[in-house]
Amino acid sequence: MRATLTAPTKEGTAAVATVAIDRRRVVIGRPDGTVAAFSFVWLRHNCPCAACRHPSGQRLVDLLDIPDDIAPGSACIAGDGALEIAWPPDGHVSRYDAAWLAARSLDPAARAARRPRPLLWGAELATRIPRADWAAMCAAPEAEVRALQALVDYGFLIISGVPATSGMVVEVGDRIGHVRVTNYGRYFDVRSVPNPTNLAFTAAALGVHTDNPYRDPTPGLQLLHCLEADAPGGDTILVDGFKAAEDLRDQDPTAFSLLAWLPLDFRFADGEADLATRVPVISTDNEGRITAVHFNNRSMGALDAPEEMVEPWYAAYRKFAALLRRPEAELTLRLAPGDLMVMNNIRTLHGRTEFDINAGRRHLQGCYVDLDGIESRLKVLSRGASRPGAIAEIERMFARRGAESYGEGVSQLEHALQAAALAEQEDKPAAQIVAALLHDIGHLLHDLPEDIADEGVDTRHESLASAWLSQHFGPEVSEPVRLHVAAKRYLCHADSGYFDRLSEASKLSLRLQGGSMTADEAAGFAREPFRAEAIDVRRWDDEAKIVGAATPGLDHFRPLVESLLRR
Amino acid sequence: MRATLTAPTKEGTAAVATVAIDRRRVVIGRPDGTVAAFSFVWLRHNCPCAACRHPSGQRLVDLLDIPDDIAPGSACIAGDGALEIAWPPDGHVSRYDAAWLAARSLDPAARAARRPRPLLWGAELATRIPRADWAAMCAAPEAEVRALQALVDYGFLIISGVPATSGMVVEVGDRIGHVRVTNYGRYFDVRSVPNPTNLAFTAAALGVHTDNPYRDPTPGLQLLHCLEADAPGGDTILVDGFKAAEDLRDQDPTAFSLLAWLPLDFRFADGEADLATRVPVISTDNEGRITAVHFNNRSMGALDAPEEMVEPWYAAYRKFAALLRRPEAELTLRLAPGDLMVMNNIRTLHGRTEFDINAGRRHLQGCYVDLDGIESRLKVLSRGASRPGAIAEIERMFARRGAESYGEGVSQLEHALQAAALAEQEDKPAAQIVAALLHDIGHLLHDLPEDIADEGVDTRHESLASAWLSQHFGPEVSEPVRLHVAAKRYLCHADSGYFDRLSEASKLSLRLQGGSMTADEAAGFAREPFRAEAIDVRRWDDEAKIVGAATPGLDHFRPLVESLLRR
Predict the structure, then answer these.
(1) For A266, which DSSP code?
(2) Closest Cα of chain B to A300: distance in Å?
C-alpha cells in the first residue's frame, strides 16, 4: 500500500491528498482537511475504466463477478490528485478522478446537496409568476433553459404567445417532452359540451385538484392552452401541493404520516375506459422528501383501510384539504388566448372559478407529457455551454434562500451584494467581484441553518462552495472562495489587530474553524497561488454587514458572472 | 335511532339484518352472524345518492361541507336488506345497498381479497407458457380477455401469429393500450447496428433486466415483436422478479427490506436525452405487497446512501442478483417470426443468450405501453356479455361422467355438490363455492377411470382441472383447485392429526401424490397466494363423501358459476 502527498493541482479542493484503509473502506483526505470514505465493493463495482464501462456510459462489470471479499492490492494518489487502485487477482487498475469522487461523495451534506429542492410558494408568488415567451424559447436555448428550470423549481410555468390555434398544445408538448396519449386522446378540449361524462366539461367551479390520479402512472405534466376566454369568470387557481404538505408536516406530523402511509383508491370509468389506482395522498421517498401529491375529490373512492384508521385518516385529510383551500395558498390568474400553462401534475393543484357559458366563450385544450423529459431536456440543452444552467442555478439559490438571515442584521443576499459592491468599488477584476458575490454560496447549497455555528457545528461552507464553483468557473473564482476562511485564520496570525476587529459571530465561528493559524500553517497559506485574492475576499466579507446598505441588485452582476463561466 | 330486523333477501348473506351504533360507527350485522363497522364520516362522505355523486360516477359532496362531528339522525334497514341513514341537519338520506356495503367491507379478509395476487412462476412454467393467438384475440373478446388476464396474472404473454411486418408492434400496442412515445420513438429496432450507443443493439448476451429503469415513470409494458430469427442463439430468458423478491423476503427479510428501503440511481444519456431516476430495486406498498422491481446492471449508478449502509446494501443486492440467476428461476424460450412477447416491465425481467450476427439475422421491434390500460380494457371487455359456452361445457361434463363413481360410495356429481354445499354453508365467497364444485373436474376431462390410483398412476387431475378452469375463471377459482392436492400433502406435514383422519383411498393416493410435504415444500406452499382457499377446498373435499347426503342440484350453483366467468 503506497500513499503519497502531492501539491494541490487545478482540481483544487477536490484533489486527493492522503489515502488510508479503514476496515473495508478507502478513506481519502483532501487538501482542505475533509475526508471521504468509500467501501471496497463500491469502488470496484463503480470502476469507470473502459473495460468496466461501455463508451455509452453503460456498466459492463457484473457484481457477481466481483468476489465478495474484494480488497485493494494497492491504493495510491496520482500526480493530478486522482485515486488509483489496483485490484487482485489480475491487477485491474481503477482510476477515480478527484472530481469524479467529489461528485459521488457520501457524506450527509454532499448527499443532501444532490437532492431536488423545489421552491415552495403561496399567493405571494402573484408578483413574480414564472413566465416565458414562446418565440423566445424557440429562438434561444438560454430562454428555454430558464423557462424549464422555473417549471422544475416552481412546479408550473405560463408560456405566453403560443398561437391560439387548435392542436398547438401538442406541438409545445412534443418540443419540451413527449406527449402521452391517454383515454382522452393526444389532446382534449375543456369547454361546455352536452351530456358531460366529466365535470371538467361543465361551467361549474372546480375545486383545486391534480389530474388523473386514477392513472398509474399518473400523468406528470399537464399542459392547458387557452384558445378563447371571453366568458366572465373561469379564472385559474393554482396551489402548491408540496407547500401544503410541508405545512401539514410542520403543524401535525401524525396527520402527515397517515396521509403518506395509507393509500387511497381513485377511479374513473366511462364507455371506453375503467381506470383505477391505489396511491397515498402524499408520496414521500425514503429520506422523507415529498415526491408527489394526488388530490382529487371527484375521483377519490371509499377509503379501503383498517376500520380503526378511518377516523384518524379523515381528520388528517380534512386538515390537508383545509390547507389547500387557504386564501394565502391560492394563486389566482387569468389565462388569455395564447397563454399556455404547464403544470407538474403531481405537485401543483389547479382549479377554476365558475363561469357563465351564456355570456361568452371559454375554450382550453390540454395534453399530458411525461415529467422526466423536462429534466432530460434541461441537461441536454445545458451541455457544452454550461452557462445558462449555472446562471439559473445561482439565481435559484438566491431566490430560494437569499432572504435567510446571514446574521448580524443582514440577509444572505444583502451580504453577498455588499461584498461584491465593495470589490467593484475597488475596481478589482471580474473574477474577484464574482468571488466576493459567491463566497458564501456554500450556505445556500446545504440545508443547515446559518446560525449552526452556535451549535458547535462547522459547516465547511467554503469547501461546499468551491466544489460547486469549480464545476462552472476557473480557479480565479473558486480558489479565493475556498480559501476565504483560511484567510481569516491567516490574518489572525499575521495581523495583530485583525482578531479584535472581527464581529462577535465571526469570533465564535473562528474557534470552530480552528482558531488562529500556527506558524507552519501560515507558511503553507503563504504558498497558495490565490492567497492575495482570498485575503481581499475576506476583507469584503468582514465589511459586508451594514444593515440597510444600498447596493446594486443581483441582475447588475449577471454579465460578470456570465463572462467567467466555463464553456 | 331505529333498528329493525328483516328477513334475508335475494342479496343473501350480504343483506343487512341488524344495525347498531358503537362509538362513532354504524355496525351492521348480517344473517350469517358476521358484522361490519363503518365510521359515520366514511358513510356520509361516500353517500352514493344522485346529489352526492354525478351520473358519471364522480363525487360531488365535499368533505369540508360535512361537519367533523357528523352523526346519523336515524339508521334503518330497508325491506331489501339495504342500510338507510338520515343525516342532520337537513335529513339528507343515504341509501347503501347490501351489495355496495359488502364490496367495501373493511375487515381484513375482505380487504385482502380485493388486492392483486400475481401468480408467481419459475422454470416449471415452461410446460404451460401463457400464449394467445392474434387472429383469435381480434375475432373474439373472450380470447382477448383470456390473453390479457394471463398477462395480468403471470406478468407476460406470447401472442403468436402477429404478421411479421415492420410497425405491427405499435398496432398491437395501440389495441391493448396506448403506445408511449419515448426517446427511442414510437417503436425501436433491436438488432446489430454500427457504433451502438446501447448494448441492446449488439450481439452480446444480455443479463436479465427490466427496461428503462432510468425513466420516471418507468414504462409499464414492453412489447417485443420478432420479425427475423435466423441467427443461432439469441434465445429469450424471462425471470419473475416478484418471485425472486418473495424468495429473498423468505430467506433474508433484512436484505429484502434494505433493497425496498434504499433507492438506487439509474441513468441513461445519449445525444438527445439524459434521463435519471432514483428508485428502490424492490418497491412495496404500505401492506408490504411487492409493486415493482427495477433491475438493470447497465444503467445502475453509484449507490448514493449513508456510507455505513453501502456494504449491507451490496450484500443484499448480491443475494437478489443471485436469486434472479438461478436456473430454476429462468424460463428460456425462442421467439419465432410472428411471435410478439408482452411483458410487465416492472415485474418480469428479460434477457437473451448471445447470438452470431454473421451466421444469420435477428431482428425484433419493440414499443412501450402504459400498464394500467390492460386492466381497464379487461374491465371494459368484461362488461355485459355472459359466457354460455363454458356453462354448457360444465353441464355436459357432469351429464356425461357425473354418474361415475368417485369411490367410497358416492358419484362424481354427488361429491362435487356436497363439497360446494359445504362451502356455501360456511358462507364462503362465490369463488370458493365454485372452486369446491369444480375441484375434481380434472377427472371429468380425462378418460381414465377414477380408481386409477389402485393401479399406481397419479393422474394429476388437479393440473388438468386448473388449466381448463383458468381459461374461463380468474385465479380465485383455478388456483385453489390447482393446489387442493398440494394442500393435502401440506396438511399431512402441518397438522399431525390430519393423516389419521383421511379415508383409506385418500391415504393410498397420497403416496402417489408424493406423501407428506418436506419442511422446504411446506415453506413453498405457505407462500402461495391462494393457500388458505386451497386448504378450505381440501377440507370440503375430505368431507364430501357422505353416502346419500341431500344437497342442492347443479342448477342451484349455475348463477354463481356464471357470475365468475371471464367475459
Answers:
(1) E
(2) 7
CB nearest B104 (choices: A108, A114, A302):
A302
Q: Mind telling me how many Å the CA of A57 is from chain B's nearest CA?
A: 7
Q: DSSP state, A416? A: H
Minimum-distance CB partner of A178 among B62, B181, B371: B181
- Sorted by sequence, the CB contacts under 8 Å of residue A419 that are 6+ apart come out as A436, A437, A439, A537, A540, A541, A543, A544
Chain B hits for A379, CB-CB cut-off 8 Å, are 269, 274
Sequence ranges of chain A with CATH classification 3.30.2020.30:
2-106
B123-378, which class in CATH?
Answer: alpha beta
Rounded Cα–Cα distance for residues A167 and A173 (Å): 10
Interface touch B108/A306, C-beta < 8 Å: yes
CATH topology of domain A2-106: NE0471 N-terminal domain-like (3.30.2020)
CATH 1.10.3210.10 in chain A, residues? 386-564
Helix (H) or strand (E) holding A166: none
Q: What is the pLDDT along chain A (567 residues), one digit of tens a residue?
A: 433 333 334 445 578 889 999 989 999 998 888 899 999 999 999 999 999 998 778 899 999 999 999 999 999 999 888 999 999 989 999 999 998 998 999 999 889 888 988 999 999 999 999 999 999 999 988 889 889 999 999 999 999 999 999 999 999 999 999 999 988 889 999 876 555 566 665 677 889 999 999 999 999 999 999 999 887 888 999 999 999 999 999 999 999 999 999 999 999 998 889 999 999 999 999 999 999 999 999 999 999 999 999 999 999 999 999 999 999 999 999 999 999 999 999 999 999 998 777 777 889 999 999 999 999 999 888 875 545 567 878 888 888 788 888 888 888 999 999 999 999 888 888 888 999 999 998 888 754 343 433 444 445 677 778 777 877 887 789 889 989 989 999 999 988 889 888 888 888 888 888 889 998 888 888 877 788 899 999 999 999 998 888 888 888 888 788 878 875
Interface ipTM above 0.85: no
Whether A197 sits inside 8 A of B63 (CB atoms) is: no
Q: Which of B170, B174, B314 to mutate to test the interface with A (most CBs of A within 10 A)?
A: B314
Cβ-defined contact of B64 to A325 (cutoff 8 Å) = yes
For A185-251, list the strands marked E by DSSP.
Answer: 188-190, 206-209, 221-229, 236-240
Residue in chain A nearest B180 by alpha carbon: A180
Q: Which residues of A touch B37 (CB under 8 A)?
A: 307
Do B319 and B245 contact (CB within 8 A), yes or no? no
Minimal Cα–Cα distance from B382 to chain A, Å?
A: 11
Question: Nearest CA to B522 among B250, B323, B257?
Answer: B250
For residue A39, which residues of chain B lie inside 8 Å, CB to CB?
Answer: 307, 310-311, 314
Question: Would you list the DSSP string of B344-410?
Answer: ETTTEEEEE--B-TTSS-EEEEEEEE-THHHHHHHHHHTSS---HHHHHHHHHHHHHHTTSEEETTE
The chain A residue lying nearest B309, using CA atoms, is A39
Instruction: For residue B219, give the chain A residue with the closest CA.
Output: A217
Please state the CATH superfamily assignment of the domain spanning residues A386-564 in this structure: Hypothetical protein af1432 (1.10.3210.10)
Q: Which residue from B minimizes the CA distance to A382?
A: B274
Pick among B26, B35, B70, B181 to test the A interface (most A CBs inside 10 A): B181
Predicted local confidence at residue B343, as pLDDT = 98
The verdict on a CB contact (< 8 Å) between A306 and B58 is: no
Cβ-based contacts under 8 A for chains A and B: 205
Residues 6+ apart with CB under 8 A from B406: B412, B414, B415, B440, B443, B450, B545
Where does CATH 3.60.130.10 sit in chain A?
123-378
Nearest-CA neighbor of B144 among B475, B564, B561, B471? B471
For the whole model, what pTM was predicted? 0.75
